[in-house]
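re: the backbone from monday

yeah here it is again, tokenized this time
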């Protein structure tokens, strides 16, 4: 059985453990700075298995280890709290990525690593930097989540099942993300056709794109405390499954760019093929002038944050 190590046993980590158990993806090791919380959640989930019929081993805290994990999903860190500046958040989470990256390098150097911690694109860069793992084995979860939000809103608008809506979202995870209506289809019918035939107005589509860009903030405001966790966990699970089952899914994710889309030495959201070798390919698309400009702006915002992370990594050396 493959081993899935979850670093961070908070809201997303706990949900990831449940989804991994339900999908019988592999043994789960739940690891957190709060050792007892991880141990408690693992025990609770193991007992749930008696009811749901899952015998999958779930260990947590002092009983769990990162050793030789096949997949590592990182949600460790803190979410932004009221009164906390972006710099404070970066200070804390870069330090967490540094610590976690070194642990992964020492104990699970062959793992496929999925980063979920925010600010996403800068954190996946920091985690890769700190771990020294190959770029194609370290990826960030954002695009599947952003696309899920977009597909959900479109489904409500069009009255079509979410699973029949295929879509791509590019760029950084945040309000500069770039939804691509030209590359959205409903069971193969381009979304642009729906607009042309008057089933969806240009204005409603623009509203949906804006709501997608603010999808995380909308949930933060409703929850009052903490941020979204069900959909982020479902999205990261889909990526882990693509790797473990070598299913070569084409999914949007924060991947290392080495000249693709005219960008180099940076992580940003693009469509990738995930299989047994990790990121097997970055899939390039023709972008029109507006899309290209929006993508460059988004990557520019990621570069600014990464520069801040790089400074912090250096000063801590
Ligand atoms: N090592 C291990 N665990 C850590 C460390 C560390 N160095 N630092 C913090 N943690 C743990 C916390 O103890 C907590 O249990 O990370 C967990 C984070 O869980 P939550 O606060 O519940 O956050 P969650 O909602 O799961 O989101 C995690 O993903 O989407 C992003 O913005 C979100 O950055 C946040 C992350």
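seq for it, each position gets an aa:
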């Amino acid at each position: 059985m493959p081993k899935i190590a979850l670093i961070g046993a908070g809201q997303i980590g706990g949900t990831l453990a449940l989804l991994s158990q339900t999908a019988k993806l592999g043994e789960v090791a739940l690891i957190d700075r709060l050792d007892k919380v991880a141990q408690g959640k693992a025990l609770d989930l193991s007992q749930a298995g008696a009811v749901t019929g899952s015998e999958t081993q779930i260990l947590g805290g002092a009983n769990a280890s990162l050793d030789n994990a096949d997949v590592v999903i990182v949600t460790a860190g803190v979410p932004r709290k009221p009164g906390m500046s972006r710099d404070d958040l970066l200070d804390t989470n870069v330090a967490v990525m540094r610590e976690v990256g070194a642990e992964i390098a020492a104990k699970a150097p062959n793992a496929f690593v999925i980063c979920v911690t925010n600010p996403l694109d800068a954190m996946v860069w920091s985690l890769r930097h700190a771990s020294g793992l190959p770029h194609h084995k370290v990826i960030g979860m954002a695009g599947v989540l952003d696309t899920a939000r977009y597909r959900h809103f479109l489904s409500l608008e069009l009255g079509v099942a979410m699973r029949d809506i295929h879509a791509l979202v590019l760029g950084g995870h945040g309000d500069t993300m770039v939804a691509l209506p030209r590359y959205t289809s409903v069971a193969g019918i381009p979304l642009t056709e729906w607009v042309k035939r008057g089933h969806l107005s240009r204005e409603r589509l623009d509203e949906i794109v804006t709501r997608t860009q603010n999808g995380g903030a909308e949930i933060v405001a409703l929850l009052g405390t903490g941020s979204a966790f069900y959909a982020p966990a479902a999205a990261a699970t889909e990526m882990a499954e693509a790797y473990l089952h070598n299913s070569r899914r084409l999914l949007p994710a924060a991947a290392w760019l080495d000249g693709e889309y005219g960008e180099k030495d940076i992580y940003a959201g693009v469509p990738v093929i995930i299989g047994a070798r990790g990121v097997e390919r970055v899939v390039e698309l023709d972008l029109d002038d507006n899309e290209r400009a929006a993508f460059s702006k988004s990557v520019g915002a990621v570069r600014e944050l990464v520069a801040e992370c790089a400074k912090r990594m250096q000063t801590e050396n």
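The longest strand covers residues 264-275. The mean pLDDT is 95.
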